[in-house]
Design a protein that fits this description.
With 164 residues, the protein is an alpha+beta fold. Helix content is 35%, strand content 27%. It binds thymidine-5'-phosphate. Thymidine-5'-phosphate binds at residues 14, 20-23, 51, 97-99, 120-122.
């Protein structure tokens, strides 16, 4: 794997197409509610503070990012969402939500960084309607649903079949 060194922007950029996880817990929005347009949220990458949800004004007050960079982060996250959502649809999988990280290279260019995997996405199997059976991502581990490795393998198999 060839990689580029970046300076990580200390934000977790979460894109949500359907309500799940902390969005349901914090707002009461029902699990699986379609979010159109998708939500783009920023969380502070700081374990000691519990990765809190931030507002634009808090981000500016903290000096983490600028308005133009936040706009660029939002635009890139939405473009990535469009590409990934369509790709996963072709795999028979709903892309519920996912987390991205970005960094700047030595020229200051903003680049997608870190990983995209079933650890950082919520993926639901379109062939299953049962709330527990449809989960193909880390929620299987978080909610102790079992068959974590088998579901990750199914995600990989479907991705490999979908690749050109
Ligand atoms: P959340 O519903 O817990 O806020 O998570 C939203 C998405 O972000 C979900 O796909 C899991 C992913 N995520 C991470 O990859 N790392 C994290 O530390 C957190 C909190 C969420």
């Amino acid at each position: 794997m060839r990689v580029k060194r970046v300076e990580i922007v200390p934000l977790e950029v979460v894109v949500r197409n359907f309500a799940a996880g902390s969005l349901c817990r914090q707002t009461g929005i029902a699990l699986g509610t379609k979010l159109d347009p998708c939500l783009v949220e920023f969380y502070y990458k700081n374990d000691d503070l519990g990765d809190p949800l931030l507002t634009r004004d808090r981000i500016f007050a903290m000096g983490i990012s600028s308005a133009p960079q936040l706009d660029q982060l939002t635009e890139q996250a939405m473009r990535i969402n469009t590409i990934l959502r369509e790709f996963f649809t072709g795999c028979g999988i709903t892309l519920v939500d996912f987390k991205l990280e970005f960094g700047t290279d030595h020229t200051g260019t903003l680049l997608l960084a870190d990983e995209i995997s079933p650890d950082t996405c919520r993926l639901w199997n379109n062939a299953e309607t049962d709330e527990r059976k449809r989960v193909m991502d880390k929620d299987r581990f978080r909610q102790d649903l079992g068959s974590v490795a088998e579901n990750y393998q199914t995600v990989l198999d479907r991705i490999m079949m979908q690749l050109p």
